[in-house]
Protein: poly(ADP-ribose) glycohydrolase
Amino acid sequence: MDHLSGANSMLPFLPISISTTSNSSLSHFAWPEEAESALKDLKLGPTVSHVDSGAKLFDFICKLRDGLGFSSQPPLALRASNGFSLFFDQYMSRDEAKVWFDKVVPGLGALLLRLPSLLDAHYCKSNKLTSDVNCELRILSSQDAGIVILNQELIAALLSCAFFCLFPTKDRASKHLPIINFDQLFDFLADGWRQLPRQKFKCFVHYFERICNDTPNGVISFERKVLPLHFDADFWLNSDAPLCPIKIFTSHLIEDQPHDALEVIFSNESFGGNSLDISCVYKGCDQEQMRFLINPELVGGMLFMTSMENNEAIEVVGVQRYIRQKWRGSTFFFTGEFLDKKPVDSMGRRKTGLVAMDALNKPIEEQYETNFLLREVNKAFVGFKRSKYESNIFESQDCKQPSGDGKTVCGSISNGKENGDENQNEQGNGNQNGLTVDKAEIFCNSTEKQNKKGNKNGNKKESDNENLNANALVGIATGNWECREFGGNPQIRFMIQWIAASQSNRPFIHYYTDYAISMERAEQAIEWIVNKKWNVGDLWTKVVDYSSRKLEGETTEDLFSWLQPARNDNVVHAGINTFTGSKRDPHPTRQDDRPNRAKRKPVWLNDYVTVMR
Structure:
């Protein structure tokens, strides 16, 4: 296992080590003998292990850590023992506690015993997935674009290690890795009166109950995406990419959206943020923490994903949702199990794609400076760009046809139910060619026929094209990107994400927001922009222009109002240009008779937009 000795090796951060048997030169993972013996007792249940209460469970964990030689590791959080006792001996009902200690804890013991063989199999199979791309478990460091592919059973075993506080933590901070063990969660359970830590543990307990009852066998990919540094202001200024269709929902949540869309996690720069950190007690439950609770397998990525830089994002595909929740603002409540019925792709990944991207923290006035706008649009762009590994790792999927009679919606605000009659068939309504549903179906079918005709023996080429067509129908589901906690301007963040999704060739962007007041003019602003036939470069220039005026105190209007002055277009009164609503001349690229616009096929509003009233 020479591949485990490099700078990005996971070995120093795992609780097990490499062993070589006496009758073989082959290396394999193994628990230390003392730890393995304790886990075998745990697997046999409380009659053997004597683990039948929260206090005894904590004592067992301390014994297990001693068996791993953790004397040089930082100690567990001071009040963790109190948290174990409170949750399992007081907060749990006696019936729930009996199921937990009689069935779940022994099941976790059995899962931990399988961890060495699961890791052996993982490293063996990862080398055979592809000769071009490294898919194995390793530290994915900053600026190190790469992908890790894990099966759900291995992730369950790793999360069991986190629950039992078995990961070495001494060197994690120096690698910019987030907290991974659960001891801090148990520590602030000791406060007693706080609801959030109690609700968090209800989620994790439910997850462990589910995996012990029926271990999932799917696959999850974790990718660090890195944007080259040449995407500067001129790149965005000169882009002639068409703007993709956009739709706003004011009464729904991203995690409940039913469409083929990459769902945005409004992340901390550290993947997972405060999900396992004691600081979440004081900050409440943000959107990122909520996602890591309802999709607990995301926590597995916290083991090896270092903090993100300005040009990085993290994409995860395949996580399963286990939890139904009630979440509003900073409050979170576990309300029961969620049965995830999303289909899986040919790799075995559930068709749930998430992208974590962090915004600037409380930028106040700085958010209007061009360099900060550039940072945010590049952050969204790297998040929304399609995976570089789609063509050379992931097997082909069926060419997914859009369904339903509705056309792609652009610039509509919906207050009705997403699964209602007029919204039910939004999935796939659009593609990178700006086509309606009907045309998209024709495009997909004709492409498939063309590949068959032109390549009798080219099954791989045909499959690759089918895969690209299917992936081309995946849009973006996002919302108020760090507009509450981080103080961002919601209208600027709205436009920046629209720009980034369009430049990424996404077929649509769905925007989920409860800022109904601040978004009340969004529909008119979008209609204005589309009627003007603006492209990415046009909209970017206007956002930069508005931000500059805002920074200099030249306008008090919000962005949506400023973009669509209530005057006749291209008529000047008293020295004020009515196109921009200011004394400055409009940007020269705004003129409809510009040479490069005449060469580009216009995207007319009525060709691909239906505005719902």
